[in-house]
């Protein structure tokens, strides 16, 4: 029994999704029958048109929305069964990066990064925004990692979009996660700034060995950063494979017959 | 993508809607009939026991409301049954919307249109009679009011000192009422916000209880609260503080909670995703977004309370209104003028300051 279990345990996926489906109140179906496994150290890109269910899929993984069907496991714990404190403890290990950055705009950059440590902070001091010196040092270090140490005291909304998203990356790093969910992290940034943010997410994946699940719609970025990709269409998983296997025919099958790649992607 | 799940049972909803429409029709028709009777009685020149024409109150007393309500119910039922030929009734149009076939008809082509036209006409005629509009008095009896205007123009200095002291009391009365209202309204605002209370049955219950209670408190005028608190703690500024406090809690709770309902939920999601607890999510995801508008509303509320405390003083709630009332009764127009000018200056100043501060915050 244990001999048979050992190799299986070594290959335990970071995220396992079975039969995931989501119907929003009001009857709109966003996801149907998703089966997916994501393994340690992968950088998984999720492709698809807007409205294809990418956001919902990511949000079902950390239960920002409650899926209506199916089950999700993270590190072998069934997320879809957890509630209250157990769910919060699991969320600590899963950082999230959003398209709209979602910083607390009126707080300083440092306070925003410190909020990544809320899951492990003591309640009362955290409510008056008092954090231990060790956490402050760690927050400064995270900021330095994304090249914003000198902006620690600025108000978050004084920063440019690209800088704000790097603060969000520092906040995610502060959380000391094992998994990062990134929901269109560069879609609202100037194209010239996209790599500046993606490189930091890539560094977390490569240097820290963090698993990344990242929804993207820019094929350029997918080819450059992802180790594997899956594609959604109308809430269903329609394709998965390696970036090298992705070609024009696949592109059309995901985005529809009329679609053209937006930029020179080499095919 | 947009696959719809089977809809809820519709027969139940249809019958509830029919009942609502019927009730609205019955009430409308009953009011129309009663207004008709009022006009008939008034214009037939009915005289009372003293030989004078009946006043509006006496006519209203005579009307046969019960009979009209019965007739209204019967006619509403008839209309509902004959809706196929008569067109949708006003109640049906309100509850279900105007039916497809009647949308392009002019109002003169539907019974509903004529009903509405007659109803509106009658409302104005009945309103004229019931509120005893008297254009003659309005245009000819200006004399006494002219005294007040003259008093305003020639304010008497004899009441200036007392007036200033009570003005300070008025401003502080309003300040204390506002200050004590802030913490309670702040706490109540969270359970009163729809977007934070969808999570569980308990949260929805808290929402309903808090909203209902605050709507009730707000519906009762501060003047009435003042009368209640005067009989509780006695005449004086403290009763005024309590009256304005209760009203401020309710109105600030409403303003605060509406502000919470309009926040950007992004930061809440981000903080939730870090594994933070509910209180931490509120502290980091909600509070920073609502603090500036909260401050702005609070200062505005203080401003309103200064104005309201004048009226509260009329019934014994302290402040400058307390000495204004007897002088109006005695016809000391010079002194009334002084007090009114003091109040006007204060309100103007408060207005100016609060506008400036709010400009800075937002």
Which class of secondary structure composition applies to the elements of chain B? mainly alpha
Cα distance spanning the termini of chain B = 41 Å
Q: What composes the largest sheet of chain B?
A: none
Of all protein chain pairs, which has the greatest interface, and how many residues does each chain bring to it?
A-B, 41 and 25 residues
- What are the low-pLDDT stretches of chain A, counting only 5+ consecutive residues below 50? 1-9
- Number of H- or I-type helical stretches of chain B: 16
Which structural class matches the secondary elements of chain A? alpha/beta
Helix content of chain A: 25-40%
What CATH first level of the largest domain in chain B would be assigned?
Answer: Mainly Alpha
Tally of distinct domains of chain B: 2
Indicate the CATH architecture of the largest domain in chain B: Orthogonal Bundle
Q: Strand order across the biggest sheet of chain A?
A: 6-7-8-3-9-10
Describe the structure.
The complex is a heterodimer of chains A (about 270) and B (about 350). Chain A has 10 helices and 10 strands. With about 270 residues, chain A is an alpha/beta fold. Chain A has a domain at about 105-175. In chain A, helix 6 packs across helix 7 (about 160-175) and helix 7 packs parallel to helix 8. With about 350 residues, chain B is mainly alpha-helical. Chain B has 2 domains: about 15-135, no CATH class; about 150-360, MetI-like fold, CATH 1.10.3720.10. The longest helix of chain B is centred in the C-terminal third of the chain and has 37 residues, at about 280-315. Residues about 1-5 of chain B have low confidence and may be disordered. The chains are: A alpha/beta (about 270), B mainly alpha (about 350). At the A-B interface, helix 3, strand 6 and helix 5 of A face helix 13 and helix 14 of B.
